[in-house]
């Protein structure tokens, strides 16, 4: 511990003032981070890095805080700074995770593979492997979107999207049935179909369809989303827990998928988790989604952030007049 001393004053007061070293600040930062007080955690971590500017552990932890608040570019700048002066292997996984959130899948893949190459049995090897699997799934799904250039599919997509976002299930069903016939490779339509079926009263049929799909694709994000929602609505909470736990451990790459998880958490009363997911979303990419404003507002209100809830609701109503006909979270 570094001590700042003045012998004369020390003799008079028996007090030895001191300047804490970086470890003290780092520990305080970790404590704040664990309590999810990210602003305070950042302040402590910045003090730690000022005390020890080249300590890779401090810089990496500060990058993790930036990642938690969605500041991925700031996080990446710190990680690249670490790699310029050291070979701190954890940086590779942290960079991979951040690039995945930014939608830069090839960069994410490169850094995840770099981590596993150097640390095949490292502390983050399981996370890196899972990330690579998610990227592969995402790339597979992208192949199914090759037909998007066709005007006919785009018209179907936009019309179904409008009805689904407006919760107009009966209008959505016949259109989705046509879509599934004309474009059988368009996977999302099948999950929209089960949701529309469930909320139009055909609950058992919808659940069975999703269970069948999950049996063939156990990692299907959309099946877990729908089954969590369906079982919650039915009051089958043990089944609901199984599927919601699968979602709590997944951080999708695309904004549309992130939104589905956030909305499902809000619709099943996991308001704090929903609020945290909504905070990570890119608002400009989701301005066409009434569900963003509807359920973000609900989640914010339920955890005591009434001003934010009202602001989101008012913005949503301004963009989507139909929202004004719905019950606001505080009514």
Commentary on this structure:
InterPro entries: TPR-like_helical_dom_sf. This is Tetratricopeptide repeat protein. With 331 residues, the chain is an all-alpha fold. It has two domains: 7-143, Tetratricopeptide repeat domain (Serine Threonine Protein Phosphatase 5, Tetratricopeptide repeat), CATH 1.25.40; 149-325, Tetratricopeptide repeat domain (Serine Threonine Protein Phosphatase 5, Tetratricopeptide repeat, Alpha Horseshoe), CATH 1.25.40. Helix content is 72%, strand content 0%. It has 18 helices and no strands. It has helices at residues 7-13, 22-34, 38-51, 56-68, 72-85, 90-101, 105-118, 125-143, 151-165, 169-182, 187-199, 203-216, 221-234, 237-248, 255-267, 271-279, 290-302, 306-319. Helix 6 (90-101) packs parallel to helix 8, helix 13 (221-234) packs antiparallel against helix 14 and helix 15 (255-267) runs antiparallel to helix 16. The longest helix has 19 residues, at 125-143. The radius of gyration is 24 Å and the shape is globular. The model is unreliable at 1-14 and 141-150 (pLDDT under 50).
Please describe the structure with a list of short key phrases separated by commas or semicolons.
single chain; 331 residues; mainly alpha; Serine Threonine Protein Phosphatase 5, Tetratricopeptide repeat; 18 helices; globular
Strand-helix topology:
Blueprint: H1 7-13, H2 22-34, H3 38-51, H4 56-68, H5 72-85, H6 90-101, H7 105-118, H8 125-143, H9 151-165, H10 169-182, H11 187-199, H12 203-216, H13 221-234, H14 237-248, H15 255-267, H16 271-279, H17 290-302, H18 306-319
């Amino acid at each position: 511990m570094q001590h700042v001393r003045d012998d004369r004053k020390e003799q008079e007061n028996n007090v030895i003032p001191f300047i804490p070293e970086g470890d003290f600040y780092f520990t305080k930062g970790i404590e704040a981070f664990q309590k999810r007080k990210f602003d305070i955690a950042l302040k402590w971590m910045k003090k730690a890095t000022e005390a020890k500017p080249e300590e890779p552990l401090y810089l990496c932890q500060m990058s993790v805080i930036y990642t938690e608040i969605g500041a991925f570019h700031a996080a990446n700048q710190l990680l690249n700074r670490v790699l310029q002066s050291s070979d701190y292997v954890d940086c590779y996984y942290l960079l991979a995770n951040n690039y995945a959130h930014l939608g830069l899948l090839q960069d994410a893949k490169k850094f995840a593979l770099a981590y596993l190459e150097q640390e095949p049995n490292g502390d983050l090897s399981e996370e890196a492997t899972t990330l690579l699997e998610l990227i592969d799934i995402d790339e597979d799904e992208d192949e199914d979107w090759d037909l998007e250039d066709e005007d006919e599919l785009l018209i179907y997509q936009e019309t179904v999207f409008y009805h689904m976002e407006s919760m107009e299930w009966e209008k959505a069903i016949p259109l989705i049935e046509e879509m599934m016939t004309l474009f059988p490779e368009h996977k999302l339509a099948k999950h929209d179909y089960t949701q529309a079926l469930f909320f139009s009263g055909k609950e058992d049929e919808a659940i069975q369809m999703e269970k069948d799909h999950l049996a063939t694709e156990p990692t299907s994000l959309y099946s877990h989303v729908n089954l969590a929602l369906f079982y919650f609505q039915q009051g089958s909470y043990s089944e609901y827990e199984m599927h919601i736990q699968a979602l709590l451990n997944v951080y999708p790459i695309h904004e549309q998928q992130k939104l589905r998880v956030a909305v499902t958490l809000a619709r099943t009363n996991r308001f704090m988790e929903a609020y945290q997911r909504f905070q990570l979303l890119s608002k400009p990419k989701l301005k066409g989604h009434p569900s963003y404003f509807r359920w973000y507002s609900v989640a914010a209100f339920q955890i005591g952030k009434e001003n934010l809830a009202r602001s989101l609701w008012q913005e949503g109503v301004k963009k989507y007049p139909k929202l004004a006909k719905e019950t606001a979270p505080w009514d």
